[in-house]
């Protein structure tokens, strides 16, 4: 079978029959060998029977959520290609051919773009059309090397085997973003075709919750991009803190009528420490995600980890600790010169703050080197090749055993014949 159209369904009695009939009619018209699968997520309005009467196959998905329903339908699909779309009659199931043609041409994922194809009046709330979708799609293109203009279009087609290999995990609306992000990170052939969006045919409100589901999409994009979540903000904080702290260590800095002094130096020190910690978290996340298969390996991170070994990290941390201790000794000497009496904070803090900062960063460096070494400990994993080899060996042993038993039985039979 070439194509399976999967529609998630939760109480769509008003529209599911229309959607199924449109999809089947499109496949008949263009000679596509296919089926429609309704992934029912617990409907109580008779949607299941309406879908069956229209010619669909219904599979029940107990685990709630948009992503869970779709994954249940995708796993149950019999087609080489899968088209997914909502069962609310907002997507054009009569226009499946452009998607199928791109898939036949070798694409792994074909996204619909509603902004290029046309959005009918009233089909998309203004908040989604002019803010939510454009902003989240821009963030997706910024964080990941993707050219997709409509990250959240629900009408899309893909090779079933390619998508199943991605190991998609999210069960909610962010499933739409996860599919695009992981396909892009894994280097799949992702394309886009124009599609239309019409007002849905339901009388009840949609399942989508704008702010909640928008945040879930943004959260997913951030968590899958340690560079933008940790590294870039952390590096910016570090640079600003280092520049400001270095200037203030030698005395006050005047900018027009504003005077920046030791109070700002303390703030600059905090920026350096927080920024450094964020950069380390980016490194931790990259190493862990690559080891566990959540993100593809990053060659630059691997080279960095190979260069900065545990021993080098301990040495660097030790040097920072020595620098911090030297500064603290110098501050004690400065105090001694004043007979251990009252000090001018504008003088003493210029020694204490940088020294304390160096000490804090020394321990951060040492702990980071130890933690990265722990993350780098490889577990023995049984690969599919290992499983196949083991199965082949077991089969060969079984055949050998059967052959040996058969030979023994033949020898025994010959012996009995000879004795007669």
From TrEMBL:
Coiled coil: none annotated. Residues 4-163 form the Glycosyltransferase 2-like domain. The keyword Ion transport does not apply. InterPro entries: Agl6_TM_C (IPR058718), Glyco_trans_2-like (IPR001173), Glycosyltransferase_2 (IPR050256), Nucleotide-diphossugar_trans (IPR029044). Pfam families: Glycos_transf_2, GT2_TM_C. Residues 398-420 are annotated as: Disordered. Keywords: Membrane, Transmembrane, Transmembrane helix. The chain crosses the membrane at residues 228-253, 265-289, 310-337, 357-377. Residues 408-420 have a biased composition (Basic and acidic residues). Residues 283-376 form the Low-salt glycan biosynthesis hexosyltransferase Agl6 C-terminal transmembrane region domain. Belongs to the glycosyltransferase 2 family. This is Dolichol-P-glucose synthetase. It comes from Sinosporangium siamense.
């Amino acid at each position: 079978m070439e194509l399976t159209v999967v529609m998630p369904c939760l109480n769509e009695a008003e529209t599911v029959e229309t959607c199924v009939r449109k999809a089947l009619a499109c496949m008949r018209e263009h000679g596509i060998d296919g089926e429609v699968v309704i992934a029912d997520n617990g409907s109580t309005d008779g949607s299941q029977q309406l879908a069956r009467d229209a010619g669909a196959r219904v599979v029940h998905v107990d685990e709630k959520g948009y992503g869970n329903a779709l994954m249940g339908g995708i796993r149950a699909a019999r087609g080489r290609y899968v088209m997914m779309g909502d069962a609310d009659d907002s997507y054009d199931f009569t226009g499946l051919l452009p998607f199928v043609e791109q898939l036949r041409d070798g694409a792994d994922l074909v996204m619909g773009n509603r902004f290029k194809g046309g959005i009918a009046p009233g089909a998309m709330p203004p908040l989604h059309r002019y803010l939510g979708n454009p902003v989240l799609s821009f963030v997706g293109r910024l964080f990941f090397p993707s050219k997709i203009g409509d990250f959240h279009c629900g009408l899309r087609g893909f090779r079933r085997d390619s998508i199943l290999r991605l190991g998609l995990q999210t069960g909610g609306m962010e499933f739409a973003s996860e599919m695009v992000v992981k396909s892009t990170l894994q280097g799949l052939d992702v394309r886009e075709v124009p599609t239309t969006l019409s007002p849905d045919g339901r009388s009840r409100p949609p399942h989508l919750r704008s702010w909640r589901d928008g945040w879930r999409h943004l959260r997913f994009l951030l968590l899958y991009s340690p560079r933008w979540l940790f590294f870039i903000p952390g590096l910016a904080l570090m640079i600003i803190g280092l520049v400001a702290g270095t200037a203030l260590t030698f005395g006050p800095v005047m900018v027009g009528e504003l005077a920046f002094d030791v109070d700002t130096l303390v703030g600059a020190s905090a920026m350096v420490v927080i920024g450094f910690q964020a950069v380390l978290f980016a490194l931790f996340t990259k190493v862990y995600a690559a080891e566990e298969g959540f993100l593809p390996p990053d060659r630059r991170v691997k080279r960095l980890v190979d260069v900065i070994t545990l021993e080098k990290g301990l040495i660097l941390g030790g040097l920072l600790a020595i620098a911090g201790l030297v500064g603290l000794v110098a501050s004690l000497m400065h105090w001694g010169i004043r007979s251990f009496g009252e000090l001018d904070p504008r003088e003493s803090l210029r020694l204490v703050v940088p020294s304390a900062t160096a000490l804090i960063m020394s321990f951060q460096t040492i702990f980071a080197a130890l933690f990265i070494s722990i993350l780098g400990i490889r577990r023995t994993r049984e690969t599919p090749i290992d499983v196949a080899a083991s199965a082949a060996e077991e089969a060969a042993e079984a055949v050998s055993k059967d052959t040996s038993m058969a030979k023994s039985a033949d020898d025994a039979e010959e012996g009995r014949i000879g004795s007669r």
